[in-house]
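Why do we care about 3D structure at all? Because function follows from shape, and shape follows, mostly, from sequence. That is the central idea of this module. The next example makes it concrete: a single protein chain, its amino acid sequence, and then its structure expressed as C-alpha cells.
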Amino acid sequence: MSNAEPAKPSATPARLRLRVTAAAERNVRAGHPWVFSDSVREQNRDGTAGELAVIFDRDDRFFAVGLFDPDSPIRVRILHVGKPRTIDREWCRERLQQAIAKRAPLFGPDTTGYRLISGENDGWPGLVLDRYDTTLVLKLYTAAWLSRVPEIAPLIGESLKPERIVLRLSRNSQVAARASGLDDGLIAGSADLTRFEPAPASFPRVIFQENGLRFEADVVRGQKTGFFLDQRENRRRVGELAAGHEVLNAFSFSGGFALNAARGGAKSVTDLDISAHALDSARRNFALNADIPAVAACQHEGEQADVFKWLARWPSRQFGLIVLDPPSLAKRELEREGAITAYGKLVADALPWLREGGVLLAASCSAHVTAEEFFGAVRHAARSSGRTFAEMETTGHPPDHPATFTEANYLKGIYLRF
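And the structure:
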C-alpha cells in the first residue's frame, strides 16, 4: 500500500454573485430579461457560459437569477425574479408546460407549424423551440444554454413526443458549441434525445401544414429554424384579399404569400426573389398543393432579380396586390436611419406597379426600427405619391410569437388600399 495521502476533493467554487447598477436593477424588477455587461457593478469571480448568476440588491438580498454568458454583451439572461427559487429540472419542466399550454388553444389540426417557446417572452431567454409537424427545432441564440441541452431535450421529448429534435445554433454560439461537441444542424431521434448526430446528406425537408396549406421546411440548413412562421397571419390575410387579382410577392422566399393568394382566388402570382434556391422552394410548395383547385388554376411564375433594382424600373405591368416583405434592413442600431429611408423608397418604387383599387402590404422585421418609424415611412411614401389611399389595418406579432419587452418587438405590417 502507498503511504501517500489520498488526494483531497477540489473545493466547489463559490456561487457566482453579482451586483448591478441601480438602473439595471430597476429594469430587471420591471420585467426586462437582460443585464448588459456594462451594468455589472460587482462580481465575486470569473464565471463560465451557462453558469447560474445570482444577483443581489443593494441591501445584499437575492432578487434575481439568470444564465451567465461571459462572451456576450448580454451578460446575464434573467430566468427568475423575486424570492429565491431553485433552477433545476422541475423548474424547466414547469416553464415548458406553461409555454405549451399557451399554444394549445391557438391551432387546430390544419396547422402543424408554429412556435412553442419564444425565448425571453416565454421565460426561456435566448432559446427558441419551433414545431414542424413531428419534428421540433431547438434553436439557441446564446452559448449559455449549450451545457443544458442534454437535460432540456429529454424534457421536450417527454412532453411533446416528437420523432426528432434538430439543434440549430446562432452564429455567435457555434464556436463555443463545437468546443463542447455540438454543432449547427445536429439531429437527435426519439430513441435517444440526448444523442445529437450530424444529419445524413439525404435528410429530407420536413412537410408541415399552415392553415390547411402544405409547406416544406429545411430544418437543418434553412434560415431561422427552416421557415418564417411569424408571418402566418399576414399570409392568411393576403389570401383573403387576393381574389381576382394579379399578385406580386416581392422578397418571396419560399412563396408563402403567393400560395395563400393562389388559394384565395388570385388570377396570377409572381414570386420575386434574388435567390434561385428560394424560388425553387416556392415551386415545390405550389406542387405540394396542386390538388387544391384554386392553386392549380392560378398562374404561378418566379423571377430571380434584385427586388430594389427590379421595382426601380419603369413598370411593365401592374398588380392588384403587392406584398413587400424584405429581410431585416437594420441589423444594428447604426443602420436604423438608412433602413427607414430604404423602407420609404421601397414603397415609393412599388406604387407605380400597383393598379388603382389595389392593395399594398408593407412589412418589416427590423427590431431597430420601431413600428412608429416604419409606419411613418410607409405613410410618407404613400402621401408623396399623390395618390389617394386608405389605411386598412396594421399588424404585429402573432400569438405564438409574443413580444413582452421593447427589443422583442420586431414584426410589423401595414395594409394600404389605393
